[in-house]
Amino acid sequence: MNKKKICLLCIGILLLFLSGCGNKNRLKDGTCKGRVYFRDIPKEFSMMDEHVKNLFTIRVELTNLTTEKKYEIVLDTKNEFREDIMMHPGTYRINSVFANGYDYTGITVTCDKESVEFRRDIETLIPITISDPESVQQFWMDSQPQPEIRVADQYSAMIQVNRKVIPIENILDEMNADSSVPVEPYKKQVLSDTAKGLSVTVENDTGEEQPASACKVIAVTASKSCILFPEGVSVATAPEVICNRDTGVYGEPTKFTGMMLFGWNLDTTNAIYQDAENGRRITISFSGDGSAVETITYELGIYE
């Protein structure tokens, strides 16, 4: 990394620090009490791995209708999803309520208020609630590894979807995607199931046009924890649990690609595992700061 890049990195970190400090002070320098909190946290969340809990945050943005100043409140495990604030008197519009970490928890949130008024004589409460409790329960159940996937060999090309453990080549049967789309000779086509966070690449290896359902599945990519790979690995699995050389589920990767400064929030880093015998390849893609797995791609028969 040259001096120019190091300088830009330092400036970015400084600006981020100053921005965070300024925002925190603004939430405490008023005279009206308020509380933003996550109400009725689902029991499924309490059963999730600590790593997943720490990835889940709720961001609430308020705007003072008089001054047009914006304020962001972050709820997470550090403040136990509750933040006490002191605001200036006035009416505040609730611009947005957003949950980071849906891909790991299945939790989406909402607020039943469009605006709130801060006054000196009362405490203003802003409760955040789950948008769809039933979907959270379903997501959690789908994310639990079945015994067959826990014991499946890393390169067995097995996958768990809809709580079923099947060969990856049969995954189109479990997808909510149009597998009748035509694929030209010797071409590839990507089919997606957004609800499952799943995309599948098929290849027509014949000289005639074929529907996707008749093509060969060559790769699967998952971005949500309800899709599980051999030994129970999913995007909800902590990076160190997967890639540690001595104790990791998959052990030391065959190689890394991307930014060498892993965890510096500069670029995506990929840990690649490849079986020399059958060519199957697993690519674990990490977030820029190295705290989470963003996607897992399983390719069948990749040779270099």
Structure in words:
The chain has 304 residues and is of the alpha+beta class. It folds into 2 domains: 23-138, Immunoglobulin-like, CATH 2.60.40; 144-299, no CATH class. It contains 7 helices and 19 strands. The protein has helices at residues 3-26, 43-46, 50-55, 102-105, 133-142, 147-150, 239-243; strands spanning 32-38, 57-64, 70-75, 82-87, 90-100, 109-110, 115-118, 124-130, 158-161, 164-167, 182-183, 188-193, 198-203, 210-211, 216-222, 255-258, 269-274, 281-286, 293-299. The strands form 5 sheets. Strands 12-13-15-19-18-17-16 form a 7-stranded antiparallel sheet, with no helix packed on it. The longest helix has 24 residues, at 3-26. The model is unreliable at 3-8, 13-25 and 262-266 (pLDDT under 50).
Feature tags:
304 residues; seven-stranded antiparallel β-sheet; disordered N terminus; 19 strands; 7 helices; Immunoglobulin-like; alpha+beta; 35% strand; four-stranded mixed β-sheet
- Poorly predicted segments: 3-8, 13-25, 262-266
Strand order of the largest sheet: 12-13-15-19-18-17-16
Strand content is 25-35%
Averaged pLDDT: 90
Distance between the termini: 29 Å
The computed structural class is alpha+beta
Quick one: how many beta strands?
19
What portion of residues is helical? 10-25%
